[in-house]
Specification:
The chain has helices spanning about 15-30, 40-50, 105-120, 135-140, and strands at about 5-10, 55-60, 60-70, 85-95, 125-130, 145-150, 155-165. By secondary structure, it is α+β, with helices and mostly antiparallel strands. The protein has one domain: Gcn5-related N-acetyltransferase (GNAT) (Aminopeptidase). A 7-stranded mixed sheet has the order 1-2-3-4-5-7-6. A hairpin with a 7-residue loop joins strand 6 (about 145-150) and strand 7 (about 155-165). The longest helix is centred in the first third of the chain and has 17 residues, at about 15-30.
Length: about 170
Amino acid sequence: MTELHVRAARPDELDAVESLLREVSTWLASRGIDQWQYPPHRDRITTALERGDCFLAFVEGEPIATIQVDTFADPEFWEAGDKPDGALYVHRMAVSRSSAGMGVGGTLLDWAAERAAAAGKAWLRLDAWKDNPGLHRYYEGEGFTLLRIVDLPHRRSGALFQRATGGL
């Protein structure tokens, strides 16, 4: 694959971010996986774009992936004992199907871990869909450890993963 270029997405690139998320949602549905079977949270994405927390990855000028990396530790998942301030958190990572299997997701996770380390954070964390074991295996293969599954009846996500960054 040609070199991956990652940069903060601009507010006027909301459609590109949403398109990547919808593409992955459609792919998941085609595989019988109920993850992300709702319209993207435009309000949350817009806020992330305005804050500079939403990123696009490009190959040869074309957006092929998106990832959000920020300090938001969902209080329904991350407890005080987890030291939530000691991490950056990944949200809404999606890779276009035409670039799937080329290591783009792993490259983005490495990039996010480097970003966390540079910010002095010990951990890169995320919460994944509880009942998507393939996704869990993917994150474990990328060096993440499953901490626990928080089973809240009103939340489908809740599989909590973290990976040391070497920061601190």
